[in-house]
């Protein structure tokens, strides 16, 4: 019977420090990114990115042609957020900041930590440029969260600002940009006066489907949170109590 070998573990901190020194380091790098609107040049190492992340494995999997390889352009990704993702990939740890929680490239553990960070710092994050630059798939799990520390009225305003920026960049109508995420707004949590004001603004600048506003009015009219199946009424952690909430048969999260 073969004797099991001895597994030797080195110290984690020096290993992490050594790898962190390679983040955006031209030394031995074999792939170059041009990131953000500022077109910041970022250097990385193809094999490390590919083995750590499926997104980069697909992105970098094609063989480059002869000569100096062209840079990978990621113009919609904020440079600071991209560097935070690289640090996580290289060292398996990163200190999250409000500007660096927008991009996760499908990294499950990092995405979970980013969402938890945003939930705890919701109002501050909603005011950052990084929030406005989120993709619709990245915004969707945030708007569906019960743990956001922000009131629904503020969240509606933030969603409108996000959609306006996306509409300007993509040259598409605001409502079309907002369509993938806007159903997660919990309009029934708004007071009647707030809902009326939103309805009027929605006439001037369409953002939310009319039927979604109608569903919220039905909840008010019937005074039941479960009156309409597609009108979510769950209170978020930051929901400000309103008089009509006692009719929705809901508990605070």
TrEMBL record:
<dbReference type="InterPro" id="IPR042846">
    <property type="entry name" value="BTBD19"/>
</dbReference>
<dbReference type="InterPro" id="IPR011705">
    <property type="entry name" value="BACK"/>
</dbReference>
<protein>
    <submittedName>
        <fullName>BTB domain containing 19</fullName>
    </submittedName>
</protein>
<feature type="domain" description="BTB">
    <location>
        <begin position="29"/>
        <end position="98"/>
    </location>
</feature>
<dbReference type="InterPro" id="IPR011333">
    <property type="entry name" value="SKP1/BTB/POZ_sf"/>
</dbReference>
<dbReference type="InterPro" id="IPR000210">
    <property type="entry name" value="BTB/POZ_dom"/>
</dbReference>
<dbReference type="Pfam" id="PF00651">
    <property type="entry name" value="BTB"/>
</dbReference>
């Amino acid at each position: 019977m073969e004797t099991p070998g001895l597994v030797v573990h080195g110290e984690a901190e020096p290993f992490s420090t050594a790898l962190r020194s390679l983040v955006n380091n031209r030394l031995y790098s074999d792939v170059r990114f041009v990131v953000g609107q500022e077109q910041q040049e970022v250097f990385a190492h193809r094999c490390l990115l590919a083995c750590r992340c499926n997104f980069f494995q697909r992105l970098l999997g094609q063989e480059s042609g002869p000569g100096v390889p062209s840079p990978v352009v990621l113009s919609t990704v904020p440079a600071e957020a991209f560097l935070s993702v690289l640090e996580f990939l290289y060292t398996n740890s990163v200190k999250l900041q409000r500007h660096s929680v927008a991009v996760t490239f499908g990294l499950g553990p990092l995405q979970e930590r980013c969402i938890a960070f945003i939930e705890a710092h919701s109002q501050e994050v909603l005011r950052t440029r990084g929030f406005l630059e989120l993709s619709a798939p990245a915004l969707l799990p945030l708007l569906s969260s019960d743990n956001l520390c922000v009131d629904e009225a503020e969240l509606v305003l933030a969603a409108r600002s996000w959609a306006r920026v996306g509409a300007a960049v993509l040259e598409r109508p605001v409502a079309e940009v907002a369509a993938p995420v806007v159903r997660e707004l919990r309009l029934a949590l708004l007071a009647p006066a707030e809902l009326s004001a939103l309805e009027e603004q929605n006439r001037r600048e369409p953002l939310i489907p009319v039927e979604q506003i109608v569903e919220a009015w039905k909840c008010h009219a019937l005074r039941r949170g479960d009156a309409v199946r597609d009108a979510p009424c769950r209170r978020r952690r930051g929901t400000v109590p309103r008089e009509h909430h006692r009719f929705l048969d809901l508990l605070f999260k």
